[in-house]
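User: Here's a chain of 179 residues. Predict its fold as tokens.
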Amino acid sequence: MDRLSSDDRMMGEALAEAAAALQEGVFPVGAVLAKGTDILGRARKTMASNHLSHAEMNLFHKVFMGDYRFSRADGLTLYTTLEPCVMCFGTLLHLPIVRLVFAMEDAYGGCASVTLNGAPPRHAARPVAIAGGVRRDEARALFASFLDTTAEPFWREGGAPHFQTAVRGEPVEISGVVP
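Assistant: Prediction complete.
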């Protein structure tokens, strides 16, 4: 299976997690961790208005708690429906993940385009390949559905206007990220 079709299939798994979150009334972010075509774990955002229950963090806790045996040589890829925030991206840098694939750019809080110029040696020596825009339209549709149906005051009152504009309008280009 070539990388493009593998990315498409794995993002489909992440989108399914996001759809499950949406069904629960939660911001629809889903994440999958894969080693090649093998899924090591999957998760979704689990609580409304909780700053720590991000899909990626839930996934990292599932896969990397305890005595795991993964290394960067395993070629682990994180698939997520939304560009990771600084917390999730920073955590990713600490883990043996070598590639990040996301569906939709997060014009409000995404950090995949953050450069690591001047980063500490641990991070400078551990680059992460990044690809964005895989099944973007499907992710945007989930986020639009959430924005149309949520009762959360933050979103109803126009919170994260950059994000809402990107969902409702044209995608926002982020430098350094391949769309």
